[in-house]
Design brief:
Length: 217
């Protein structure tokens, strides 16, 4: 037996452990549910999702039959709970858009820098090839500087991202932990994008006929 705030008594028919009825921003608080006669606002139904449209139409017909004086209004709980994280979903979209723009700008900058450096080192590449340097060695030489700067940028970005993500997760009462492989995967992808961006220019510079670079010397 238990007593409500209005003095009405009832029997406990079930207990649920950690029933999270609010956003994950808030901790689980004590809650009891009871049937209050005469002021029921909602009727909760579990629907078969294979044919939601016809099911909702049937429920609306039955509602009009038993309660014609009240309009039939409904909503889905998944939409209700999605509203709790609407700001997070909008924030995710903004981050995705700006990330794509930043990657595009970075790729254009790396491509331009690769073109400039390969042209500036044309004679050096020609001399190395005349002295027997292989194409793979030329590619490694040209890409080494880019790899170095990508690694430095990755370390700086990782520290900033780790701090920012921890500060953002502090807004949640229940949150996941940041795994190291997320940052490692981001670093591998960044390095792969950088190498793909400069590979074409590096390949062109490495396979160019050395005579073209040295004929004016």
């Amino acid at each position: 037996m238990f007593s409500c705030y209005n003095g009405k008594q009832g029997h406990i028919v079930g207990i649920v452990h950690d029933f999270n009825f609010k956003s994950l921003h808030e901790t689980v608080e004590p809650l009891f549910l009871y049937m209050k006669e005469g002021v029921n606002n909602y009727l909760t139904l579990k629907l078969d999702t294979r044919n939601v449209t016809n099911t909702v139409s049937f429920v609306g017909q039955q509602w009009s039959k038993f309660s014609p004086e009240s309009p039939f209004e409904y909503f889905f709980y998944n939409d209700f709970y999605n509203q709790l994280y609407k700001s997070e979903a909008r924030f995710s979209q903004i981050i995705l858009i700006f990330s794509c723009i930043a990657i595009l700008i970075a790729c254009l900058g790396i491509f331009g820098l690769a073109s400039f450096l390969s042209e500036a080192r044309t004679k050096e590449i020609g001399i190395r090839k005349v002295n027997g340097a292989k194409v793979s060695e030329i590619l490694a030489m040209l890409n080494k500087d880019f790899v170095k700067w990508v690694v430095i940028a990755f370390v700086i970005a990782t520290l900033i991202a780790y701090y920012a993500m921890n500060k953002w997760l502090e807004n949640f009462a229940y949150k996941t932990s940041l795994s190291w492989w997320i940052f490692a995967l981001a670093g591998v992808l960044a390095l792969g994008i950088a190498l793909l961006t400069v590979s074409w220019q590096s390949w062109r510079a490495a396979t160019r006929n050395p005579v073209e670079a040295l004929r004016y010397e």
